[in-house]
Every structure is written in C-alpha cells, then in structure tokens.
Amino acid sequence: MTEPAKHSVAMLLYKGVAASDVAGPLECFGLANYVTGRLFYDIHTFTSDGKPVAAAGEWLELKPNRAFASLPQTVDTLMIPGGPAALAAAKDSKLIAWLSDRGKRVERVCTICNGAFILAATGLANGASMATHWLYAEQLSRLHPTIAVDRDAIYVRSGRIWSSGGMTSGIDMALAIIEQDAGRIVALEVARQMVLHQRRSGGQSQYSMHLLAEFSDLPVVRRLQQHIVDNPAGDLQIATLARWSAMSQRSLMRLFKEQSGMTPGEFIADVRLRHACRLLEASEQELKEIAMNSGLGSENNMRKVFMARLKLTPAQYRARFRQADVAQATKTQAAPAYDDTWLHRTDVMEFQGR
Prior knowledge:
Low-confidence stretches: 206-213, 324-354
Strand content: 5-15%
Radius of gyration: 23 Å
Number of domains: 2
CATH superfamily of the largest domain: Class I glutamine amidotransferase (GATase) domain
CATH class of the largest domain: Alpha Beta
CATH architecture of the largest domain: 3-Layer(aba) Sandwich
Structural class: alpha/beta
Number of helices: 16
Shape: globular
Oligomer: single chain
C-alpha cells in the first residue's frame, strides 16, 4: 500500500495570475517528492469552478485539478499567488468569502508577491506581519493598516501566515516550509537541484534598487525629482531645493511627501544609494570617487550607508554584482560608460507604464 502524503498543498489559480508565482513554489514541493523518493507533498491547483485560466499575458493556460467544491479536506497549506490581476482578485467577493472560510481550517496560509492583497482582503492576516513585493508595500500598508508590512523581507512567517516578497522569493519561502516539514537536508537537496542558495542573505532592497517612489504627476514635484536624480552629488539641501522650486521649505516638504510618500531626504538617500550601486556595478572608479560622485561624501560614510541599508560593504556589493565586462577590464582600459538616469526621465514615463 502506498504511504499517504505527509502534507497537502493547494495553489489558487485565477485569470491574470503570474505563472512564476505558481510554478516556482510548486516546483520546490515537487522536487521534495523526488528527493525523498515518496509522495511527501500531495499537490493541488484549483480555481473556483475547476476550469482553466490564462496566466498574465495570456501566453499560458493553467489547468487546475480541483475546484472550490472538490478541494480535499486534507489540505494543510493554502497558497495564494500574485500577478497583475491580484488586486482585482482581492475584490472578488466569491473568492474572498471562500478563502475566508477555508483559510481558517488549514495549518498554513501562504502568499507570494502581491497575492498578499488577496489574503489581506479576507481579514485572516489582521494583526500579522507580512511581506509583499517592495513596489506594493506602501499600498498594502495603507489599505490594511492592521497588518505590519515588512518592506524588505524576502519572506515572513507570522504564526500560520507565511508571505513572500517578489516573484522568485516564493521559492525561498517554499524552501523554508520544506525545511520545517521535511528537515534541513531535504531542503538543501531541493535547493541544490534548483541551483539555489537555501537562504539568501539580506533583503529585497539588495536586489531592487529602483526608487521606492513613483514620479509624481504634479509637474513641480516631478521636475524636482528629476533634478535630484540628475544631480546626486549636487547641493540638495532643503533650502536649496526650495529656492530651485520657488517654494517655501514647509510647502516643499508637505507637497513632496503627499505626492511621493517619501520626504525629500528619503528620496535623496535612495537616489544616492542607487547611483553608488550603479557605479560599483559598472565602473572602475575607486570607492572614494564613487562616494564623492554619488553625494555620499566620504568612503567611510558610504560604507555606513551600505551596511545600514544593504547589510553589505561597498566592496562586497561590487564583488557580488559587478558586470562581467567591467570585471574583465584592465586598469588601463576605459570602463564602459553607464548612465541609468534615463530610467527616471519624464519623457520615458509612458514607455515604463508609470
């Protein structure tokens, strides 16, 4: 007689879900079955009616093997993936009502990326800590103030609520679940099969150095944001920026915060850190030059900023993320020119979908 599965995992599917949010974690559980040589995890995918749905971009049809009504009562881990349609799914009353009921009767409820919004809508995560994609952290915190949103965590376990940051961090969370269920050796072997580290060091901010604020639609604030991005090493004191914007310091502080969700100082700090990271990745400049050119002042101050924000020294960051063509260049060769300020220019906002 075949030994019954020790755990049962069910992944929600809905139209517009991110395929990687679904496939990444489930691949981990499938490989755990392979590694243990048995059906350690009984894996299910389900939709409300059991019918197939199109993944985001409509490039792939996802066929579930269950519906709400046929999902086994033995399921102990309920997984909610994210995707472009996650916020719309969070407003689906039928889905939220079903999850609210079924979610009370499982051992774990897990979210991937902005699937956190769907779980948050059920009320099951009230009072819990959660991770989500860094782009959505502020919005999740604003819409659901009873949830403590960890803006930088790769994944968070808060009681029986598990949540992960961006798409691939769902894999990190799945590995942690496997370690809890099957032990460290199995989790390490699954990670090895997938050519992954079992635990990544640091948080999302290491790998998501885009600005944490959208450019404002208000021209006066947008122009100021562009000025800051174009001049990271310039005089960016509040008094100077207020004169540049023809506003009082108090008005500047209030308007900037309202429009971006950040103070000017926080925005400037992100710009300077991003600029330093790009120079470390794509130039041969000495650390003291990078500190000066990024507006971070001294090499010592830059080190303090990196350790506080990224838990890495500038030298460690350069060793980990330096572009291959720069790493191979000799000291006598000119480093490739690199300028990422175009990412933030107002004339490409439409292209970026801002």
